[in-house]
Design a protein that fits this description.
about 300 residues, mainly alpha, three-stranded antiparallel beta sheet, about 5% strand, elongated
């Protein structure tokens, strides 16, 4: 967590340098922050490690958007920011690595549970029956492997196209369920891990959306610098400032743009176009609010 704390401090330094007029230093610090996030996400060992990398990159992208909105930033500095963001790879590959790592971590825990359950000393017949009946290692491993493979194969798809498994109603473990539901502990483990895998997919879409939104923000400001006006549509940015209008990773449709309000937005995991409405007023550095839309400011 020291890395995360350092990243937040560096994010604060970027803001400070910007308001002090040291924009070249702020751009250099933004570069360093993105590199830090990239190093952390190269070989994520778990969902937690992936989320740490995402938080670091979130801070960097938010500060880059703040720099792009600064009316005093030069066109050359804007282009440097564009180059930094263009160099950020998509989040599908690190997400795949993290899903695989998470599977191996869970599998190791399951094998540990199975090893301990096979120690016969000081166990009654009832305890042995309950343990053997409620936890079937190989069946649980097969179920986990099947669902993890399904997530890995779908990681490139947009959120709306992914068929998330129906959640089991086995939300809690009770003695009664362990007696009457075969492999109750294994099914509980599988059900518990599903929410984690959903977070993997949500995180991947959020981060790719944040990268795409940052590219649009920078492109809009470059367009305004060269034409003297704001773009009426995002299509006006193509092909001089963007190769194409970025797609929202959640529903696969082009990013929404409200020129009158100066925002773009993603529909978010709720998959409902709420006209850019967010759960809270204002635009904090992290725009994600559950099932609401995720707006990004283009102009202050």
């Amino acid at each position: 967590m020291e890395t995360l704390s350092a990243a937040r401090v560096l994010g604060g330094k970027i803001w400070y340098e910007r308001i002090q007029g040291n924009r070249d230093v702020a751009v250099q610090d933004a570069h360093a922050l993105l590199r830090c996030g990239r190093l952390v996400r190269q070989q994520p060992l778990s969902l937690v490690a992936l989320l740490v990398a995402a938080t670091i990159e979130d801070v960097g992208l938010a500060e880059i958007q703040g720099l792009a909105r600064d009316p005093q930033i030069s066109e050359a500095q804007l282009k440097r920011l564009r180059a930094l963001v263009d160099d950020i790879p998509p989040w599908d590959a690190p997400t795949q690595h993290a899903v695989k790592a998470e599977f191996h971590n869970i599998n190791a825990v399951l094998e540990h549970i199975d090893t301990n359950s096979n120690i016969l000393a000081n166990r009654s017949v009832w305890q042995l029956f309950l343990t053997r009946h409620s936890f079937l290692l190989h069946q649980t491993q097969r179920d986990l492997a099947d669902t993890h493979r399904a997530y890995i194969s779908a990681i490139h798809e947009c959120y709306s196209d992914v068929a998330f498994p129906i959640e089991s109603n086995l939300k809690t473990l009770t003695l009664l369920r362990m007696v009457f539901v075969k492999n109750a502990l294994g099914r509980f483990s599988t059900s518990f891990s599903r929410e984690g895998r959903r977070h993997f997919m949500t995180n991947r879409c959020r981060m790719d959306a944040h990268i795409a939104a940052t590219k649009i923000v920078i492109a809009c400001h470059l367009f305004q610098r060269e034409t003297g006006r704001r773009p009426g549509t995002l299509g006006e940015l193509v092909p001089s400032y963007l190769p194409s209008v970025p797609l929202d990773p959640f529903d696969g449709k082009p990013f929404r743009y409200k020129p009158g309000e100066g925002i773009i937005y993603s529909v978010g995991e709720g998959l409902e176009d709420l006209d850019g409405a967010a759960a809270n007023s204002g635009y904090p550095s992290n725009p994600w609010w559950g099932d609401k839309n995720a707006p990004f400011k283009i102009w202050d």
